[in-house]
Structures are given as C-alpha cells and as structure tokens.
Amino acid sequence: MEGEKKYITVEQLKLHNKPSDLWISIQGKVYNITDWAKDHPGGDAILFNMSGQDVTDAFIAYHPPSAWKYLGKFFTGYHLKDFEISEVSKDFRKLASEFNQLGLFENKGHVALYSVISILVMLYLVVYGVLKSESVLVHFGCGCLLGILWVQGAYIGHDSGHYQVMSSRRYNKIAQFLAGNCLTGISIAWWKWTHNAHHIACNSLDYDPDLQHMPVFAVELTFDAVARFLVSHQHFTYYPIMIVGRVNLFIQTFLLLFSKRSIPDRTLNIMGILVFWTWFPLLVSCLPNWSERFMFVLASFAVTALQHIQFTLNHFTGDTYLGPPTGNDWFEKQTAGTVDISCSSWMDWFYGGLQFQLEHHLFPRLPRSQLRKISPTVKELCKKHNLPYKSLSFLDANVTTIRMLRNAAQQAWDMALPVPKNLAWEAVNTHG
C-alpha cells in the first residue's frame, strides 16, 4: 500500500555522503551501497562523487536494463519523498528507453572488426619496415604509422571499456587488456579510474581528472608562483606539450598501478605493461642508430598528439564549475561542458566516434557507429530545453582553445591573484 512506504527527504539523503555511509537514490528508491562501492566495476570514485543524491540519469546512461535486477539487495526500504524530476531529465529517460527499444545499444556494426584488422595490418607494416628497410624515410613513416596504431588501439580500449564490443564479457576484457596495456602501454585500470570519473563530473574543476593539468595548463586560475609562470605561456606551449603528452600517461599508469589504492586485476595490468615495455624498446633498438631511434619515437608520439589535442578540444572551451555533480542537472552539465567536432563521415574512423562528444557523454554505452545517427535527435532535445549544442570544426575548435588559453595566460600575469598552495607535486600525482 502507498501509505505503508517509508520516506526520507532529499536533505536527509544528503547526510549519507561519506565513504563510510554512502546512500544514493534511483527512481525514487534509496539504496545503501557503502560496502559494495569498492567492488563497483566502474570504480568507487564516481560513487563517492554522487553520494547522497539521486543518480537516476547517470545510472540509466551507464547501465544496461539487465543491471536493474541487482539493485534489490541494496534497497534500504526508504523512498525519496520530495525529489522533483526536471523536464529535461524526463525527456532524456524517454529517449534512452526509445534507443533501447530500437536496439541501438546492441547494434554495434563491424567497427571493432575493422579496427582490429587495421591495427594488425599497421603493426605488421611497422615491424616489417623497421626490420627489413634501411631507408630513413621508411623508418620515419613507420614511426608515424605506429602513432596511428596507438590512436586506434586507444579507441578499441575506450569502446570495450564503455560497452561490450566482443562476443562475451571475457573477450571484451581481453580486448581491453591487449589494446590498452600490451599495445599502448597505458593501463586499462588507470583509464577506468579516471575516465568514468570524467564522465560523471564533466568539467568540474576539482572532480574531473581530465581537467587536472596544473601547473602546465589552466582553464581557471588558482595556482602558485611556478604554475603562474607556466600558465602565463600556455598558449605557446600547448602544442609542444601535446607532442610529449604521452609521457604523462605512462607516468600516471605507473603511479596508479604501484600505489596503495585498491586496483582491480593489478597483477594482470602490470603484466600487460611489462609486455609493452618489452616489445616497444626492442623494436626501437632494431633501428640502426640513436638519431633514427629518437626520430622514430618522436614521430610516433607526435601523431598521438592529434588524439590528445582532440580530447582537450572537446572540453577545454566548455563551461566549468566547482564541486561535485548533482543528480538533478546531470544532463545540463554534460551539454555545458562538452564541444563536438564537426567532420565528414569518412573521418569517423580517425576520430573514433569521439567527435560526437556530447552524444557519447549522454549515452556512453552507445556504439560509436550509432552516434552520428542520433546526433540530430540530441540537437533537437537541446534546442527544446534551451541548452547549448556546441559543434565546431577542428580548425575553429583549435582557434577557440588557443584563445581561451591565451586569455587565462594574460590573467596569470596579474600578480594580485592569490597563490594559496603548491601544485607542482599535485599535478604529477593527480588521479588524471
């Protein structure tokens, strides 16, 4: 009977917002996930970020319908009394349901197959060119091809981390391990640790790990004297830093895997990293001299810079905010902090589907082959609720990003700004 239900208020739910006392609500029911948070496949960080509030929209975005049956064991017996669902959330939930009924989440196309075949072909050409050719130009081309291979490998790892691209969960996990750890040297465990938190807290200055680039880059200004100097030149250093940005990903992988944090499949991840740091140095050592080895590594890193630039273009010029995300404006936060990159359909392979950044953030389980199809629908939904739908060409997005970095750099010269803390080590040891 309706009158027999037990209720708590939104304010009472907010009190349960600590790792030792973690409650959430989904579609009006309140769940206690304190003891289970550490076992959450998507990591505990995203649960901590949204603790003590309604998480229905995020749950719908991230979980297939089969996940609902597991919620029962966490039910507290309480229902949320006074939570008001926004009109945009109602439309988002309706749209997600329609996509499910149309089978869009299950229709993956043949993108994964084509990507795997292209990676294997590129890997063969790189190894063959290094071992069989004595041409400097061929070796340079192999370095560039290796960079493209890493970009496509990262997309496979990304896709398999968000949804099942293979025929089973087991094969999906193998794809993550091979594409991430073994092929690119970047731990899939580190990627999950940061990427899920990025999706949930998109463009939160203190909760989104993908914005934690201090003391090198700043989109908002709170830094120490060292960071102030670096940030004041960031519009000049942006592209050079992107060229060697891969080094930071290697560092972050090692920092996480050898930290005291609880890491799923730590041993397996470390073994995968060891595979990469065996085959890659061995391949480089097969080049005839140190100048060609340096050229080969730099060329491969420079090509991956295009992917690093793309990731920053998607969010650097979006709106930022302080604090954790809140459940009742989850959709709005995604639209405000996200920028799409407009391009022709023949470029979809190169961008990995992530040029449709807003569509991906709203429906992260949606296969990349479906993102272009749903783009007009998402645009109409944004228009209906007077929300931004930002889409720029790659060139315009670069110009806008550099302009934003330059404006922040000019403000960094203002010595009247506070210098509250040292961020140098924080920048190295951040979760992003």
UniProtKB/TrEMBL annotation:
CDD domains reported in the protein's UniProt record: Delta6-FADS-like (cd03506)
Coiled coil: none
PROSITE patterns (alphabetical): CYTOCHROME_B5_2 (PS50255)
Domain Cytochrome b5 heme-binding: 5-89
Matches recorded under SUPFAM superfamilies: Cytochrome b5-like heme/steroid binding domain
Domain of life: Eukaryota
Bilayer-crossing regions: 111-131, 137-156, 177-193, 238-258, 270-290
Any single GO BP term: lipid metabolic process
Name assigned to this protein: Delta(8)-fatty-acid desaturase-like
Organism: Pyrus ussuriensis x Pyrus communis
